[in-house]
Amino acid sequence: MKRDSPRRHTGLPGINHKTKISMKQLGKTNYLLISGGVKDFGSFDPKVIFVAFEEALLSHEVEEIRGFLGWVHEDESHRRFGNVNYEARFYEYLLSKNIKTAAKKSASSDVKYFDFEEDSMESLQHQQRHENH
User: Fold this and answer.
1) What is the pTM of this model?
2) How many whole angstroms separate alpha carbon 32 and alpha carbon 26?
3) Where are the domains of the chain?
């Protein structure tokens, strides 16, 4: 019995459906899928372009990439990404998501977290350096 290609599976073989897999990189394949959708539809809005490539994504990539595209689409600075900086922009997205999650978890603690949307990446890094000293 021939198996489908791994990119077409709704689940991953050998991985429990409850296992949470987090993406650490966007990857060249996903970038090419996204860029094709952007070229076809002229937007980063996931509601518009996701139909172009959703079926080609692995099941654990769907929500992460949808969130990333929503983050790019809603960026008030209108910073986009391309062939050279797609991994850097994805890393910024993951960083902002992790900061917001940490802020929600510690809302009652004395630890100070930044709202990524209000503070630039540079001021965040500057503040972290000063807090570590």
Assistant:
1) 0.62
2) 10
3) 6-102
Q: What is the spatial distance between Cα 95 and Cα 90, in angstroms, rounded to a whole number?
A: 9
Cβ-based neighbours of 96, under 8 Å, separated by 6 or more: 71, 116, 117
- b/e 76-96 (16+ beta carbons within 10 angstroms → b): eeeeebeeeebeebbebbbeb
Phi, psi (deg, nearest 5) at residue 81: -140, 160
User: What sign results for the dihedral spanned by CA atoms 83, 88, 92, 97?
Assistant: positive
Query: What is the spatial distance between Cα 114 and Cα 21, in angstroms, rounded to a whole number?
Result: 26
Residue 93's nearest CA partner among 68, 61, 128 is 68
* pLDDT in 10s for each residue of the chain, 133 residues: 444 444 444 344 444 444 455 788 999 999 999 999 999 999 999 999 999 999 999 988 999 999 999 999 999 888 889 999 999 999 999 998 887 776 666 665 554 544 444 445 565 565 556 555 5
B/e letters for 42-51, b = 16+ CB within 10 Å, e = fewer, are: eebbbebbbe
The rounded distance, in Å, linking the Cα atoms of 15 and 132 is: 39
